[in-house]
Amino acid sequence: MTRTVVHATGLTKRYGSFTAVDAVNFSLEENRIYGLLGRNGAGKTTIMQMLTGQLFPDAGELDVFGREPAEHADVLRRMCFIAESQRYPEDFTPAHVFKAAPWFFENWDAAFAEQLVADFRLPLKRRIKKLSRGQLSAVGVIVGLASRAPLTFFDEPYLGLDAVARHIFYDRLLEDYAEHPRTIVLSTHLIDEVANLLEHVILIDQGRILFDRDADELRGSATTVAGPRAAVESFVADRPVIGREGLGGLASATIDGRLDQADRIRAAEAGLELAPVSLQQLIIHLTGTDLRADSTEQEVAA
Amino acid sequence: MTAVIEQSIPRTEARSRAHEIWRIVRLHAVNPSIFFGVPWLILGSAWAIMMIIGLIITGAGGPVDDMAKGMRYSWAVLSPQWYLVVVGVQAIGLTFSFALGFGTTRRDFWIGTSMMFGLVSLLNAVAIATLVQIEKATNGWGVGIAMFDSLWYGQQGWLVDFYTTLALQLLVLFVGASVTTVYMRWRMRGMMIVMFSAIALLLVFVAYQTFSGGWMALFEWFGSIGVVGGFTIVLGFAVAFAVGGYLVIRRATPR
Question: Which domains are delineated in chain A?
């Protein structure tokens, strides 16, 4: 049976009058790969900082491994979170980071870390301040993978990584996850890159959760309908439309929700083309501000 | 779905508090240039400069006795202290954020950091007090300079030199660290409030002393407690900053 490792109820973080995380509820189950997705400033990092006890929530309840995380050593030692904007001690090099890591992560695999350093071609003796963005991401990725913490966070792991490095991360994560299952949370705004890794997606925008669903359920949960404008309009008339585009007499509309066989036949008869929507497109439709105006229009029209 | 949190997962390995505190000391020492390398490089450079000045003066036939007397007022022996304030600041501003990412508690971080400060102060105190004795024994490194045997040093024996250096060193490190905890908890607004409050308190004290005519009594009191008494006050301030830092860091958040 699966165990719940994180349970948040009404979790809130405010900075003055700005609410970074607004009463969110969610749970994370053991040994799954989660995607914490959203645009820049959506509140992804703030949520992870609260889960790892780095920030104190202003309201709500938070249980991580059975208790509030902040200042509880037995909870904190099961987690690994290298923030995208992580600060390192003065004059630190990656070599210092990897030397200190086993003192903090009891499952640290030094051989694995060494292999990853070689894979990512990370210069061990260069000062962290002098590393490129991609090399800095690699430091976080290596710590996250080699620490094998029961709850591991990767904060924007792809930032600045080249195509080869992204592929290495993808492969190593899946290989190691298969051998050493653990709960992994990937936060990113580069959604297409990680879409295939994710088992569950939590989409957050402006401090609120837009959806919290299994990735399998999401793939194919939305469809784009394209064809002559009039035909498209009549087909989508009574459906939830989350995006529209048009060019001359042609139009396309993205609808949220699955189509059954009868719908597909009807669409084909009307001369419409149906196309699946990728996770990234779906998220753009759901969080894009310009499209929100469209959906209001739709509501008014309806 | 009912989201019930299971019994917490059993510990996979016995880990003691001592381990969790000691690893913070090791984290501070993993790059030894910060706490040891740079301060001693500064002190070593100051020593080299003093030696060269000494050689120039004696080479030119200057009066050796007057030179040593003049050098008593040199602050060269204190030259690493400014840098160590910065080390205290960075220990909280940078290493604290990093240690939180590695899953330490604020409590263990502050205790471990205090232990590191204690160790560094102890080592520096032993080294400086011993260097004072060596300088005296070698008659100013054979040149007649007075770098370590200066200010209040070299007058009341090894133990007093040790004690005063220890107190000063602890104060310097804890001032930097504890003031930074204020920034880490309340950011710039907190820093401003603390700074202006400190200035206001100081002004009130100055005004009180001036209007009550208490300055002479104060100086006499300082004279009566002597070097050891004065540095006991310094040590008291260091302890106060250490305790204050502990209270403030408990709710501090990383940048």
Answer: 4-218 (3.40.50.300), 222-301 (3.30.70)
